[in-house]
Amino acid sequence: MREVAEGRDLAxxxxxxxxxxxxxxxxxxDRPVLEDMxxxxxxxxxxxxxxxxxxxxxxxxxxxxTEIFDGVETFxxxxxxxxxxxxxxxxxxxxxxxxxxxxxxxxxxxxxxLRERARASAAQRAAA
Length: 128
Known about the structure:
Layout: H1 2-5, E1 17-19, E2 25-27, H2 44-50, H3 65-80, H4 83-95, H5 97-127
Antiparallel strand pairs: 1-2
């Protein structure tokens, strides 16, 4: 949360629970529901900058990279490539030029991130 990262007083941050100096757990007022998820920034630049995926344990050592990526791809296709969602996004892009530009930019960034990750993974396997 931005407020915590900026060093604000924890008691003033809505939606936060924390332990105060006396050791008691404090629950602040609820944070308002975010109505426009598209107002959030896209995560690819943050992942590219901060996420070193090689440091994370994978609980499927018996599976090849191909099997893992195929499983993820299958899940993604089944749950996200559904006609109603695609129609809604396409309609949104047709109505709003800024949304069209944003969605295309995010897609290019995301697939660039995946390409970089795949290259790094292949280089890592080749070096092993």
